[in-house]
Each structure stands twice: as structure tokens, then as C-alpha cells.
Design brief:
Length: 396
């Protein structure tokens, strides 16, 4: 189904209501997603990105029915990841020789995925394609946002930016535009997307935003490859990205733990009460990471100014749920955050020190040696944990 975006730009993508996991099982998509593909029909017709392979036949069939495959003059592949390029094999099987405009790195990725030597047209920043009727596609390389092959495409004459994975979100909707959807849902998915996917590339995000702004191009629509299209005040998402890229943190503390027999949970709750009493304005969030979606937990870490990790000691180490969280945090390279650790133990008691060391490895400023409690904490220990929370609040 073709849906109008602006001028002679139309959406020809796929809404995936059933999607609940993405990147294998690495990213949760509670609200589904879309694979946005766009058709620009001027003197020449350009297809910008495709959709994921499970929907390839339907996608190409729909293009044939709606516009005719013979009318397409070129494909722009902004990014080679399979959720965007998965329909290329089917399309090019039925339209062999169709030019594919992409970066040099995208050629490597596409050949690596599909083992085909298609009619690649390699472009770099500043290159362009004339479409006729005063319209022109201009290409801007955007390496590591979020793959080495990524680029943006700008439609001059309509002021539409196609940034692929930048400025998107995993959000399925029958609505097409940002001013039509629930704003709380939209922004929740935007920050989750940034926190879990783009955080390690924040310095590059900030740099690319400055580069694009310096081009002084009018932008009336931002059409990403997942989720909602930005037409009302489209630059609001660019402004928000600039803020998120600047070592983002709110007046928020995330207390994240797992527990075997509730002892560490009791410590987490006591510490939370202490932080809240000492700093009533601070938003304190407590999550059992074994029972909370891991990507929602990472979003909490992204928003927090301080993160406290808790685990009992098991086999001279920490619970596996905490180990997995630490590995995620390390890869995402958070900046400008403080941290602490806590936990219970029965005999050896290594978990608190291990969590503190892990936070340092993640780039956090660790505030102290942590709070450890032998066996199940009694009222006196919980009172000490409460005071520990109060003390932490004064150092955040």
C-alpha cells in the first residue's frame, strides 16, 4: 500500500505488528516496528531502502502492482543491515541490473550478506543524483551511525531527509507521522532506541549533527527507516539527539539487583529509601534485572546519573543476570555516571568488590567499596543500608 509523505515521496514499507524481538533476541520491541521504504517519483523514480527478507515477496509484489517494477530507475541503499536490504535479492532477481547507490563499505556488507555482485554505484558525501523536475538526491556518509556503511540521503527540492537508522524508533502504528501518535509512547521508544543502539556512538552522533547543521539545508520532513516519520517540527528529534549525545543524565538513580533469597532485595529497598529521604527530588528506580526487560533496564541506566548494582555472592562471583547486564553496560560505553555496589553473602563474599570493579571497567566513577551484608540482613543491617543510601545521595 502506497502512502503519501510529501510531494512525490511515498511510503512503501511494511508494518510489523508481531515483532517482539530484534537483532536476534538482543532488543525487545514491545510495540512492534516498521521497515520504512520510500519511493520518490520525479523524472526518474528512486526507491530508498527496502524491507526485511521475510516480507520481500510481498514487498516486491506490491511495488509491481502499485507502480510497476519497470518504472524504478535506481535503488538507494542507505545501510546494508538485513532489515533494510533484505528485499534486494528478490527485487534485483526481477529487475536485474538496477543500479544500487550506496557507500563503499555498504558494497562490502551487501556482498557479505548476499554474495552477489550487483550494479553498485558507490557514492560519498556530496555526491548526488538528478531526478528531474528540479529534484536531486544528495548523499551524506554517516559511518558508525550505527554501522560503517551508513549514510543519509537528502531530497533537495522537497527538503526531506532519509537518515536510515538515525532518528527512528521501533514503533508499529497505522499512523504515519509524529503528530498523529501518542507522544509518551513515541518518546519512550525514541529514548530506548538511542540508549540501547546509539549510545556507544554518541561522539559520532554529535559530530554528524554539527556537520549536517553546517550544511544549512532546510529540513521539512525526517523519514527514518523504523517507526514514525517526523513532519511536525522535525528538527525536535535532532535537538533531542544532540542532548542525548552529550553524556546524558537526569536527576535519577537506578538501583539494579538480582537476589536468591531476598536478602539483596531487602538491601536494595533500604538503600532506595535512604537516597529518597536524603534527596526527595531524585527519581529513584529499583529493578530486579532477572524480572525486568533488559533493554528497559539499559534505558534506566542511560537516564540515571548514578547506578547501584547488587548481587549476592554465588560460586565466588555474581548472579548471571547481573553479569549479562554488566556486559551490556560495558559495550554501550556510558559516560559521566557514578556507581556503587551492594550485596549479601554467606561465606566468601566476593560479589560487591566484583561489581565495583565491573563498574570501573564500564567507565563509571565508583563512589566507595560498596555495602556488603553477611547472611540475611536484620533490622540493624537494614538501618545501616538506609544510612548508606542517605550518604550516597550527598555524593551524587
Amino acid at each position: 500500500m502506497i502512502r503519501h509523505v510529501k510531494g512525490n515521496v511515498h511510503w512503501v514499507g511494511k508494518t510489523d505488528w508481531e515483532l517482539k524481538k530484534f537483532h536476534g533476541s538482543e532488543y525487545s520491541t514491545h510495540r512492534g516496528s516498521t521497515y520504512n521504504s520510500y519511493l520518490v517519483r520525479e523524472g526518474k523514480t528512486a526507491l530508498i531502502d527496502t524491507v526485511w527478507a521475510p516480507f520481500a515477496k510481498d514487498f516486491v509484489d506490491n511495488l509491481e502492482a502499485e507502480v510497476g517494477l519497470g518504472s524504478i530507475d535506481l535503488v538507494v541503499q542507505n545501510h546494508a543491515e538485513v532489515d533494510h536490504s533484505g528485499s534486494l535479492p528478490e527485487l534485483l532477481r526481477r529487475r536485474p541490473g538496477l543500479p544500487v547507490y550506496c557507500t563503499a563499505n555498504a558494497v562490502k556488507s551487501l556482498k557479505g550478506h548476499y554474495h552477489e555482485d550487483w550494479n553498485f554505484q558507490v557514492v560519498k558525501t556530496g555526491d548526488s543524483v538528478e531526478l528531474g523536475n528540479g529534484k536531486q538526491l544528495v548523499f551524506v556518509e554517516a559511518p558508525m551511525l550505527h554501522w560503517p556503511d551508513s549514510m543519509f540521503t537528502y531530497l533537495a527540492g522537497e527538503a526531506v531527509l532519509f537518515p536510515n537508522d538515525a532518528f527512528g524508533q521501533h514503533y508499529a502504528s497505522e499512523f504515519l507521522f509524529n503528530d498523529e501518535v501518542d507522544q509518551d509512547e513515541l518518546w519512550a521508544e525514541c529514548v530506548k532506541y538511542y540508549a540501547n543502539i546509539l549510545t556507544p556512538f554518541s561522539p559520532l552522533v554529535a559530530k554528524k549533527i554539527k556537520e549536517v547543521v553546517a550544511l544549512n539545508l532546510p529540513v521539512e520532513v525526517i523519514a527514518p527507516s523504523h517507526g514514525i516519520i517526523w513532519r511536525k517540527d522535525p528538527l525536535q528529534i535532532v535537538t533531542q539527539y544532540a542532548e542525548w549525545a552529550a553524556d546524558y543524565r537526569e536527576d535519577r538513580v537506578a538501583i539494579l539487583y538480582d537476589s536468591m533469597w531476598d536478602g539483596t532485595r531487602h538491601l536494595a529497598e533500604a538503600i532506595a529509601k535512604g537516597v529518597s529521604q536524603a534527596s526527595p527530588s531524585t527519581d529513584v528506580r529499583v529493578h530486579n534485572v532477572a524480572k525486568t526487560d533488559k533493554n528497559d533496564v539499559i534505558t534506566e541506566v542511560f537516564k540515571a546519573k548514578a547506578v547501584l548494582l547488587g548481587s549476592p555472592t554465588i560460586n565466588h562471583g555474581i548472579l548471571h543476570s547481573m553479569a549479562g547486564l554488566v556486559e551490556q553496560m560495558k559495550g554501550l560505553k556510558f559516560k559521566g555516571k557514578k556507581g556503587g555496589s551492594f550485596g549479601t553473602y554467606g561465606w566468601s563474599g566476593e560479589s560487591v568488590k566484583q561489581l565495583g570493579a565491573s563498574l570501573r571497567d564500564c567507565g563509571f566513577e565508583v563512589l566507595d567499596e560498596g555495602f556488603a551484608a553477611l547472611w540475611e540482613p536484620d533490622a540493624g543491617v537494614l538501618a545501616s543500608a538506609f544510612e548508606y543510601g542517605k550518604s550516597l545521595a550527598t555524593r551524587l
